[in-house]
Amino acid sequence: MITKLISHYLTEIMQSSLLKNAYYLMVGTGINSILGFTFLLIAANLFEVDAVGQSSAALSFLGLLALISELGVGIALIRFLPSAGSRSRNLINTAFTLCSASSIIFGVIVIIGMLIWIPELSKIFNNILFIAIFLSFAIALTLQPVISNIFIAKRATQFVLLINVIASLSKIVCLIFLYYLYHGNLSIFISVGLATTLVVILSLFIFIPKVEKNYVFSPQIDKICIKKISHYSAGNYVGRLFIQATPLILPLMVTSVLGATMNGYYYITYSFIAISQIIPSSICNSLFSECSNEGCIEKSNVKKSIAYMIVLLVALISIYEIGADIILSFFGDDYSSNGGFLLRTLAISVIPWSFFYLYISLERIKKHIKNIIIFSLFSTSLSLILCYLFMRSIGLHGIGIGYLVAQTFVSVPVIFLIWRDYLNIQSAEK
Question: Using one digit for the tens of pLDDT, what is the confidence trace for 147-174?
Answer without folding.
Answer: 999 999 998 889 998 998 999 899 999 9
